[in-house]
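Suppose you are handed a protein chain with no further information: no name, no annotation, nothing but its sequence. What can you learn? This example shows the usual starting point.
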Amino acid sequence: MRRFARVALLCLGCGLCSLLYGFSQLALSLEQQPGGGRERQAPDPGARQQAGGGRAGAGSAGRGEAGTGRCKNLSVSFWNSYWMLPSDVCGMNCFWEAAFRYDYMKTRPTEKMHLAVVACGERLEETVTMLRSAVIFSIKPLQFHIFAEDQLHESFKDTLDDLPYEGKVNYTLYPITFPTESAAEWKKLFKPCASQRLFLPLILKDVDSLLYVDTDILFLRPVDDIWSFLGKFNSTQIAAMAPEHEEPRIGWYNRFARHPYYGVTGINSGVMLMNMTRIRRKYFKNDMTPVRLQWGEILMPLLKKYKLNITWGDQDLLNIMFFHNPESLYVFPCQWNYRPDHCIYGSNCKEAEEEGIFILHGNRGVYHDDKQPTFRAVYEAIKNYSFGDDLVHSLLQPLELELRKTMHTYCGKVYKVFIKQLTKSIRDLYARRSKGR
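A reasonable first move is to predict its three-dimensional structure. Written in structure tokens, the prediction is:
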């Protein structure tokens, strides 16, 4: 019986080899016939690129065209079946390429989200608290780009190295740098170092997209969610920001600005999502010359023209730029940049009333005085939270008790918007952990 089994197996192997040889000869004969097989489609390069999964056109000048072989150097996506490839593509090589690419797709690292902040003066604690809030809820890995004065670097290292990031966060520290010939002017514009953000596309040349935030930002939901706005940009949009005001009657730009500004009430640059590749490539319309200028060319002329008319420094320059290039801006709702102006005169951010606050922006120093205790309560709760503690009992419940004490203020009267999204973020975080994510 063993002898018969061996003979049958040998015959089966020989038959399979003969069958494969016959198919290969048939394919070769079809290629060599004028107009035969799939070669009729060759004059249409667009069709061939589509057959190759979108990358095919990159290698169209392959070995077949050089006359040294019949296989073209054509990249093929892993989902293309071997028998569906163009006839001048080497099936065996494409088969192996597909296998290796499929393995890469399974093992390639998760995309990092890049977050930048600029810290000068007494902003160390505030910046670290902001970074902590980003770490607590975010899902994908984070890369922090921290621009700080030299004397703050060691303090940042000591503090950040002690936080349990669980391997999902890296950070890089940078010095404060401005163009040499105009450094003094940029440094004294508005607050110290604030205008550094304007130069991030020119400094971080290898970073494709970036979320810039001020130091007084607190994330109440994953960074992943605002990062996803990048996928909503249309072909002309290069950045996303929120309006400066929702209510024109209390708006600053529409009442006092002495320069152009975006939209009805201007934009606030405390939370700015940027496709920096597009920013670096774009030529901007402007009111200084009929010639469009790139990002690195337009900044200094803008400052020279408007430096006597701007109050809020680099934010005003951004308003001017997007006034002339409104098609380049994606505007996200106010709950992604919720500030005291949204509640100190009465609640005027409807999206926050419905869904809660997503990103809290404590400008005007409200984290550090008693003027807006609702904002300060959220800041203190996140600052004092110890990683690893139960978020419900150590963060959410104590915070709600503190917020109830602020109901004598306008912001305190709507204190539930401060914990509505936070409650959901904590619930979602525990749900992910229960599933091992």
